[in-house]
Automatic annotation (TrEMBL):
Localization per Swiss-Prot or TrEMBL: Membrane
Protein name: Fatty acid desaturase domain-containing protein
CC annotations in GO: membrane
Family: Belongs to the fatty acid desaturase type 1 family.
Any GO molecular function: oxidoreductase activity
Residues of the Fatty acid desaturase domain: 86-310
Sorted UniProt keywords: Membrane, Oxidoreductase, Transmembrane, Transmembrane helix
Pathway: Lipid metabolism
Region (Disordered): 1-30
Residue ranges annotated for the Fatty acid desaturase N-terminal domain, each copy included: 12-64
InterPro entries on file: FA_desaturase_dom (IPR005804), FAS_N (IPR021863), Fatty_acid_desaturase (IPR012171)
Protein source organism: Solanum lycopersicum (Tomato)
Length: 344
């Protein structure tokens, strides 16, 4: 019996590897949030101030090393190759700084230490240095976590219904159009979201992350917005043709949290502190520190079973595929469940 169980698990894993686009179940899972929490070793919920700072210091040292090498040696390289060297530096430095941004994001989830004030000070410094309004992001991102997968209440990455598509979408549904969409998304999507709430939840008036009186925030949050006054990664974990979205008749917190996907970024998984390949766990328990996330993910995968989604498609290939296939969502028959489609 044990051997048969192992064979079944291997078959299931191989099937998912062969077909990463197979839909995950949209029905209520046979386990509860409490069951998932019990499956995780208790020490994974512990936060170490020393360990968290050690990862931050490691990243800051890498930033300095890359800066020193670039500032000292790149100008000595012959001109044709100098451009390649600078481009390589920008990419490498950008990846490390993204890891620092992830630590600031962890502060916003109170996953850096046991002290909220420490988390807020560290997060404010890190995100401000990277031009992200810390408290604004913290509060709007918290609402995203509370409403993931909800077509009506999620804060960002809300797919359009086919009936709501703009007129120009039919002209972008081709290779050249997809290149333009990707270029625009990777270049402008993040600042446009922060400033104009593009791709965010619709409000009855103008919504801006930098405005303390924006409808995004409650009255008690406005002072922090005054004080505080990396899109590919997060976008790719919420945009996948195998993942459902729900309206209010079907949505619940656990199913919404499970409507995310873990992806493999290779070496960058470590550089990004595993926010890439433990994103499902992050949406279930956002306060688990990144250095416990891999262990916790391994612990919950047997329980989640087919409700857990992992896609090891090379990230650039996956980005192209999902941009092409995830244009809008359509409702299942007689259900409040919606799936991505691309046939206009």
């Amino acid at each position: 019996m044990g051997g048969g169980g192992n064979m079944s698990a291997m078959t299931s894993k191989n099937e998912q590897k062969k077909n990463p686009l197979e839909r995950v179940p949209s029905s209520k899972p046979p386990f509860t949030l409490g069951d998932v929490k019990k499956a995780i070793p208790p020490h994974c919920f512990e936060r170490s101030l020393v360990k968290s700072f050690s990862f931050l210091i490691q990243d800051l040292i890498l930033v300095y090393i890359f800066y020193y090498i670039a500032n000292t040696y790149i100008h000595l390289i012959p001109t044709p190759y100098r451009y390649v060297a600078w481009t390589t530096y920008w990419i490498a430095q950008g990846c490390v700084c993204t890891g620092i941004w992830v630590i600031g994001h962890e502060c916003g989830h109170h996953g850096f230490s046991d002290y909220q004030w420490v988390d807020d000070i560290v997060g404010l410094i890190l995100h401000s240095a990277l031009l992200t309004p810390y408290f604004a992001w913290k509060h709007s991102h918290r609402r995203h976590h509370a409403n993931t997968g909800s077509l009506e209440n999620d804060e960002i990455y809300i797919p359009r219904l086919k009936s709501k598509l703009r007129w120009y979408y039919k002209y972008l549904n081709n290779p050249l159009g997809l290149v333009l969409v990707l270029a625009f998304t990777l270049t402008f999507a993040w600042p446009l979201y922060l400033i104009f709430n593009i791709s965010g939840k619709k409000y009855d008036r103008f919504a801006c992350h930098y405005d303390p009186y924006s409808p995004i925030y409650s009255n008690r949050e406005r002072l922090q917005i005054y004080i505080s006054d990396v899109v590919l990664i997060t976008l790719m974990h919420h945009t996948h043709s195998s993942l459902p979205h729900y309206d209010s008749s079907e949505w619940d917190h656990l199913r919404g949290a499970l409507a995310t996907v873990d992806r493999d970024y290779g070496l960058l998984n470590k550089v990004f502190h595993n926010v890439t390949d433990t994103h499902v766990l992050h949406h279930i328990f956002s306060y688990i520190s990144h250095y416990h996330a891999m262990e916790a993910t391994k612990a919950i995968k047997p329980l989640l079973g087919e409700y857990y989604k992992y896609d090891d498609t090379p990230i650039l290939k996956a980005m192209w595929r999902d941009t092409k296939e995830c244009i809008f969502v359509e409702k299942d028959k007689d259900k409040g469940v919606y799936w991505y489609k691309n046939k206009l």
